[in-house]
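Sorry, I am new here, but would you mind making up a protein's amino acid sequence and the tokens describing how it folds?
***
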Amino acid sequence: MSNINNKGIVLVISSPSGAGKTTICKKLIDEVDGIDLSVSVTTRKKRKEEIHGKHYFFKNEYEFKKLIKQNEFLEHANVFGNLYGTLKNEVVSKINNGTDVIVDIDWQGTRQIEKHLPQDIVKVFILPPSMKELESRLGKRASESKENFIKRMSEAKKEISHYNEYDFVIVNKEIKHAVEQIKLILFSERLRKHRQNLLKKTLEKLL
């Protein structure tokens, strides 16, 4: 359910792998009205359980590069050999209709989106409670080699080093509490003057 009286927010949520970002995003979608998850474009192969248009927009490399040339992306990146991007129209049409959009990306993508939508973006960074806890979480995922695990930990530290570029930083000790904190951020940001479409008319009547 959108709120056309307010302009929507682009809620960027970033974190190192294993900090709980995906779970937090899903809970926000389930528990908050008027919010949606951005559907990315990707060149990676579709998995059996995935639905085109719901989980991703699946494109081949030629189609993806054509979208880049047509300036259709707010951000795009090469991640482990596959291309990923956030469609400009997919996000802008929703926020203009009063729907908030969660975008789950890294610090590089966040920088790109901020250049396009500086007034609409709210940036939240999720931290794990400790590196030991992060190692534990990533270790449980490890159907992978020790070499890959070390690489993931190195990438996590690099990601964490960009926390200072974000508006809000949340330490995810417990998922429920982290979700409640982001809800508070979201509800407060919805009340900013420039997002209230009817505020000018209301003030004219009052003054």
Remarks:
- The longest strand covers residues 73-79.
- The longest helix spans residues 146-160.
